[in-house]
Amino acid sequence: MDKKQFSLLSKINFPSDLRKLSEDELPEVCRELRQDIIQEVSVNPGHFASSLGVVEITVALHYVYDTPDDRIVWDVGHQAYGHKILTGRRDRFCTNRKLHGIRPFPSPQESEYDTFTCGHASNSISAALGMAVAAKLEHKKRHVVAVIGDGAMSGGLAFEGLNNVSSTPNDLLIILNDNDMSIDRAVGGMEQYLINLDTTATYNKLRFKASQWLHSKGLLNEERRKGIIRLNNALKSALSHQQNIFEGMNVRYFGPFDGHDVKNIVRILRQIKDMKGPKLLHLHTVKGKGYEPAEKSATIWHAPGRFDPQTGERMVVDDSALPPKYQDVFGQTLLELARKNPRIVGVTPAMPTGCSMNIMMQEMPSRTFDVGIAEGHAVTFSAGMAKDGLLPFCNIYSAFAQRAYDNIIHDAAILNLPVVLCLDRAGLVGEDGPTHHGTFDMAALRPIPHLTIASPMDEHELRRLMFTAQLPGKGTFVIRYPRGRGVNVDWHCPLSEIKVGTGRRLRDGFDMAVITIGPVGNDAERAISRITQYSVAHYDLRFLKPLDDSLLEEIGRRFNHIITVEDGVRNGGMGSAVLEWMNDHDYHPSVRRLGLPDEFVEHGPVSDLRRLCGIDADSIQQEILSFMQEESDKSKDL
Questions:
Q1: 592 is known as an active-site residue
Q2: For this structure, is 287 an active site residue?
């Protein structure tokens, strides 16, 4: 790719270079930046439509504010590709999401321009408020801006932050990037409110003139500011015939304005930059702006994979001969179960396409619920339905379910309500990195009473576990499964019950036992099949809770050497559960635990990450051989 084709962008290494340009040159910078993103992402896949939609906002912010000393806090970090390119990473942007390359989302560990980690939604207002208060207490003349959008305003944390903004002295600016989208089409009352929100040109013109005059006269002290805001509220209600929710919380509201008019955004930012008190600038944008295919199908083009930037043709591989993705097996099986069981309903926090609940949603829209980016609410909402007779399948990505931990304990598990928590993207997820790896769920959920926790080794097991979970009397049931494809091209199988708390012996042996849970068992099976020097047994534990006492008793009685393998954190996970069980039942084998290390795993292809963490087939094979050799050497020494 010829980077020199961009006459202005090629001169911008950092925002200080951008600020040397004239305002009249900014539209061309935006055009070039948008083209650069299109060309880069077409060959190195990543998040696409969201970053295209905020190009003008990105350029305007870095043009007006003195970054990195002034703080820009991004919400939903997949908006930030343009930000990365303008802040010293353009030459390395080709390594985005690759192993050892630049990170998929903003991170202060990568750049001083990245002020906060933002892999999950709705945290920008809270984090930015903290920075704004810190600046005020330390008497630093620093501007702080939170950029929230892509549906993140539907998250509860955003409202918690907004509520605190209204009552804590601060000069925070919140920019609402309102594109009526998250990944799928945004839903909920707040999204509809933002769609309908409007103010008259007369009001905006009058308010700007009045505020600038009062500011120039030094008349905007704190008490007068509050009084003027109350007057603003009354005036706006009269002119626009509605009450503004933000100004109702004493947050000064500006907008809505066109989020793609970069020169006007610069003008507005300069006008409100030094105003005291919290402010919200509402900008309407189009997700995928500037690339017609993405504008027409923003959900598909959220992360489209490789594509031809000229024609918009996506490089879709014919995968008809490959096993299906776990998420699609979930979606098809859920619909199959729901057709037979009228109590089943589906719940997802803003990911119907990502988790394939859209399959049931298309046939049974009245029995499927997209609750927006609100994982805690998704669980409690599901618990409420379960309390009164329904059987919710609540599908949440494993990493996002961490935000619902309290709800799982207090609103589902305590009453042992029949909620089926389907944790998609469990284990290592690949290029999205540490904010998205589903690594903590087993260790976090294992101590909670009443929970049944299971992980299928393949698609057939997933179907059977889903069938089992919806049977009467099963209580709160957790099923974790990975991102990506399964192992069976013919994934259909009869829906039959698996007795809760039962594992299985897949391969007999007498030298060593390998215990696995979930799809990593397939890697272990490949490793064991290569070994001829030793006789290795393989057990699929299947249930982390309750454990299979009879199976573990067999292992404890027969084997002195055990290796456990899991695709979650080693500390507190399945291996720890096996060790505890062996100790509690007076068995004392030598146990080696394989799993994810006590650190945040970087981003990169799943195959590479499994190798780095020592849980791929080659690593498991080597661990078996080295373990047995070490034990053999010990015996010789004795």
A1: no
A2: yes
Query: DSSP alpha helices (H): ranges in 113-240?
Result: 124-137, 156-165, 189-196, 201-216, 222-240
- Cis peptide leading into residue 68 (ω within 30°): yes
Which three-class secondary structure state does DSSP give residue 318?
coil
Query: Considering 287, 289, 425, 463, which one is annotated as catalytic?
Result: 287
CA pair distance 123, 155, nearest whole angstrom = 9
Q: How far is CA 444 from the centre of its chain?
A: 18
Residue 171 φ then ψ, to 5°: -120, 30
Rounded CA gap, 180 and 454, in Å? 37
Whether pLDDT at 544 is above 60: yes
Crossing angle of the two packed helices 26-43 and 262-272, in degrees rounded to 10: 110
Span 23-38, pLDDT tens digits: 999 999 999 999 999 9
Please tell me what DSSP assigns to residue 85. Answer: I
| Identity at 4, one-letter amino acid code | K
Catalytic residue among 103, 289, 403, 593: 403
Give the tens place of pLDDT for each residue, 546-600: 999 999 999 999 999 999 999 999 999 999 999 999 999 999 999 999 999 999 9
Per the annotation, the verdict on 263 as an active-site residue is: no
Catalytic residue among 40, 375, 566, 623: 375
Strand arrangement of the beta sheet that strand 536-540 belongs to = 504-507, 536-540, 512-516, 561-569, 590-596
Share of the chain above pLDDT 90, in %: 79
